[in-house]
């Protein structure tokens, strides 16, 4: 079966076409700058990358070009060859606890969650509608970033704030990167031949979150109502004292939205280093003797180590720690430092294996006598979306 995995943003649309159940990636690509001028798309097929500059007035144009490319490159013979489309949907609120077949009712329930993700959810809907128009007979499935975390207990997902905020407005911890954490959990269980693992999953990329999973149930996760809290990230602050917000509003005569923008886009590694949100630039800065880069690196590692220690307690002793995403899969220096910072737990890194486990490699990077084994597990949210779609339409 050919299943298309789609991630629609406000001005972009990423896709990967898989052959399932073989899990074979046939073609992938990204449409960028949709509706904002100078638009283009890139396609990866048979190891080659093609770039085309085209006018993408809206998402329907991206879908049109996408279908043309699939047919012209003989990836499919006709639209009938597309068996299903899976969409990444960001915020499913409390309504969606797992992936679902998209119907009008699903769309209208998802629309009710727009308040919770005003930038992401409308873009996801635009993506779904563009495909529905072009391929009205192809089943579409919604895969939510928040769904996996819906298994958290109330004691974990509630904030210590007036209970009415939860009742009236749905103020609670939702968590994100759920599709990635679920993929990692599934993969590590398959690799180790177990289905009852207690895992601390560290998804460390430009956006980062940790998740404590016990036998497939999420005990807790570090992001919240929004993707802002938790560990320090590329441009996001992670956890802060909320009192900082009105304090800076007054000091800098800024609106709440402006301060939130600072916390989302100008904080984290970028805010501390003053140079970049990218770990590779931070490492270069450290080599050049830049102290703010060294500070940013250390802050990032400490925040993550603190969460791992707390989640180990939450799990009453984890069976495995996993690292994934851009930093988790490639940042050997970050992994080394994080593990050094949790040495009180008895976790020990195999420095040689850690150095060479990069660029999409799966491996154990801890020593044989480490109290908790540590693995690098490359994530694949696109494949998880396609696998859910395959399961649901079957
Ligand atoms: P992601 O959001 O998962 O695509 O991750 C992107 C981030 O991964 C970048 O912003 C970098 O900070 C980080 N990254 C990518 N390659 C490396 C590397 N070789 N060493 C350290 N960090 C890396």
Can you tell me about this structure?
- The structure is a single chain.
- With 394 residues, the chain is α/β, with parallel strands linked by helices.
- It folds into 2 domains: 2-144, Nucleotidyltransferase, domain 5 (2-Layer Sandwich), CATH 3.30.420.40; 193-381, ATPase, nucleotide binding domain (Nucleotidyltransferase, domain 5, 2-Layer Sandwich).
- Helices cover 40% and strands 20% of the residues.
- The chain has 15 helices and 14 strands.
- It has helices at residues 59-72, 104-111, 120-134, 154-157, 163-169, 178-192, 244-252, 256-265, 268-273, 279-287, 291-314, 325-330, 332-341, 351-356, 381-393, and strands at 2-8, 13-19, 24-32, 40-45, 48-53, 82-89, 100-101, 140-144, 198-204, 208-214, 217-221, 320-324, 363-364, 374-376.
- Strands 5-4-3-2-1-6-8-7 form an 8-stranded mixed sheet, with helices on both faces.
- It is globular and about 60 Å long.
- The mean pLDDT is 97.
- The structure holds adenosine monophosphate.
- Adenosine monophosphate is lined by residues 205-206, 234, 278-280, 325-327, 330-331.
- Adenosine monophosphate binds next to α10 and α12.
Most strands sheet: 8 strands, mixed
CATH topology grouping of the largest domain: Nucleotidyltransferase, domain 5
Derived structural class: alpha/beta
Oligomer: single chain
Q: Order of SSEs, N→C?
A: EEEEEHEEHHEHHHEEEHHHHHEHHHEEH
* CATH arch. level architecture of the largest domain: 2-Layer Sandwich
Count of DSSP E strands?
14
Rg (C-alpha, Å): 21 Å
């Amino acid at each position: 079966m050919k299943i298309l995995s789609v991630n629609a943003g406000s001005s972009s649309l990423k896709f990967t076409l898989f052959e399932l159940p073989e899990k074979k990636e046939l073609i992938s690509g990204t449409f960028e700058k949709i509706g904002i001028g100078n638009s283009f798309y890139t396609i990866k097929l048979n190891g080659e990358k093609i770039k085309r500059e085209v006018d993408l007035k809206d998402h329907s144009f991206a879908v049109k070009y996408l279908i043309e490319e699939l047919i012209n490159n003989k990836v499919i013979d006709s639209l009938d060859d597309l068996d299903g489309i899976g969409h990444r949907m960001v915020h499913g609120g409390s309504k969606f606890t797992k992936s679902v077949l998209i119907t009008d009712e699903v769309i209208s329930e998802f629309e009710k969650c727009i308040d919770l993700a005003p930038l992401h959810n409308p873009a996801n809907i635009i993506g779904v509608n563009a495909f529905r128009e072009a391929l009205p007979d192809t089943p579409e499935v919604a895969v939510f970033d928040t769904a996996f975390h819906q298994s958290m207990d109330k004691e974990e997902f509630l904030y210590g704030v007036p209970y009415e905020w939860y009742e009236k407005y749905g103020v609670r911890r939702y968590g994100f990167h759920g599709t990635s954490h679920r993929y990692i959990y599934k993969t590590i269980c398959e690799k180790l031949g177990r289905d009852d693992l207690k895992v601390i999953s560290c998804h460390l990329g430009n956006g980062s979150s940790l998740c404590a999973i016990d036998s497939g149930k999420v005990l807790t996760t570090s992001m919240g109502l929004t993707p802002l809290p938790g560990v320090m990230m590329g441009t996001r602050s992670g956890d802060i004292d909320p009192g900082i917000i009105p304090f800076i509003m007054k000091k800098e005569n800024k609106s709440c939205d402006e301060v939130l923008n600072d916390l989302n886009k100008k904080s984290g590694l970028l805010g501390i280093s003053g140079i970049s949100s990218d770990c590779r630039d931070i490492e270069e800065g450290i080599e050049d003797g830049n102290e703010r880069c060294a500070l940013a690196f250390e802050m990032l590692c400490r925040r993550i180590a603190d969460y791992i220690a707390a989640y180990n307690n939450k799990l009453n002793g984890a069976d495995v720690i996993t690292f994934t995403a851009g930093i988790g899969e490639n940042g050997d220096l970050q992994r080394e430092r994080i593990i050094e910072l949790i040495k009180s737990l008895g976790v020990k890194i195999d420095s040689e294996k850690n150095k060479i486990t990069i660029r999409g490699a799966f491996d154990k990077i801890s020593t044989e006598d480490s109290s908790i084994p540590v693995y690098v597990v490359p994530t694949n949210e696109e494949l998880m979306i396609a696998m859910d779609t395959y399961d649901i339409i079957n």
